[in-house]
Amino acid sequence: ADLAGFIRGLPKAELHLHIEGSLEPEQMFEFARRNRVDLSYKSVEEIRAAYEFSRLQDFLDIYYAGAQVLLTEADFRDLALAYFRRAHADGVVHAEIFFDPQTHTDRGVPFATVADGLLAGMAAAERDFGMTSKLILCFLRHLDEDAAFATLKDAEPYLDRIEAVGLDSSEVGHPPSKFARVFAAAAAQGLKRVAHAGEEGPPAYVHEALDLLQVDRIDHGNRALEDPALVERLVASNMTLTVCPLSNHKLCVTPDLRAHPLKRMLALGLRATVNSDDPAYFGGYVGANYTALIEPIGLTRDDVLTLARNSFTGSFLPQDAIDKHL
Ligand code: ES4
Ligand code: ZN
């Protein structure tokens, strides 16, 4: 009867979460205060009022500005732990979180400060909430290939604690082909690969992510539906799509949630999952991303079971851990 309650109680994994996108306005003020960073906003209300986006770039400009308050290892630990607390409250038992090291190293925050802080938050979440997690290093695609290689080099001491590399930021004009060599280098170092593709970019970018980056998952993938041959390929290869409903709504990828493609994806046999992307900016954590679709697309209890199941089968957990969650 109460589908929202059922969703909350069902164990789920989150596979598409930018940890910098979990920075709530209240925390932004707190970190700015304790680090003596000047915020151009005067109040939490003023920050929230600025969260009106008509495309991805509108959001990215504000998201990178917000991240400037993050300076110390404690900031990154507190940020991560606060995310895990909220995800835990939503029934998330495993999370594979993205971080954008270049956003921090480019303003003088060492890679180690970021990584050590996030890893401390992950350890605390395991201890306090029994949650497991993995770290995914994302390259910013609006920056060049050399910068991505430098970031992979920065990560070398941490490669045993990083599961995968990803690709995020401004999609259109920055195709996966730009990062084919750095993804090959990451693969040679034993890292898995994911990439944002088909959020705003065309189906050709999804093909490129598969062919040139050899990805294990596609982040978003909404526009793959425009290409029936691509859909067939994604179905045949059991490719996981990490779909983010509230993000799609807020960034006007799907301005009207009644037109959201999730149900169609499931009907086509695609391994779709539900995720929060940047929950502090888009209006909710995983639970809210499921419940937002109940009325607009008639999400059912069976759909929810399939989506939660997909979140584990699409994860980078070892098979025995996946089996325990199914
Ligand atoms: C992102 Cl929604 C989205 N798309 C691309 N890059 C991102 N970085 C953080 N959120
Ligand atoms: Zn994303």
TrEMBL record:
The keyword Zinc applies. PANTHER family: ADENINE DEAMINASE (PTHR43114:SF6). The active site is at 199 (proton donor). One of its GO terms (biological process) is nucleotide metabolic process. GO terms for molecular function: adenine deaminase activity; zinc ion binding. Its EC number is 3.5.4.2. The record marks 220 as: Important for catalytic activity. Keywords: Hydrolase, Metal-binding, Nucleotide metabolism, Zinc. One of its GO terms (cellular component) is cytosol. Zn(2+) binds at residues 16, 18, 196, 277. HAMAP family: Adenine_deaminase (MF_01962). Transmembrane segments: none annotated. Pfam families: A_deaminase (PF00962). Substrate binds at residue 278. Its cofactor is Zn(2+). This is Adenine deaminase. Belongs to the metallo-dependent hydrolases superfamily. Adenosine and AMP deaminases family. Adenine deaminase type 2 subfamily. Catalyzes the hydrolytic deamination of adenine to hypoxanthine. Plays an important role in the purine salvage pathway and in nitrogen catabolism. Binds 1 zinc ion per subunit. It catalyses: adenine + H2O + H(+) = hypoxanthine + NH4(+). Residues 11-326 form the Adenosine deaminase domain.
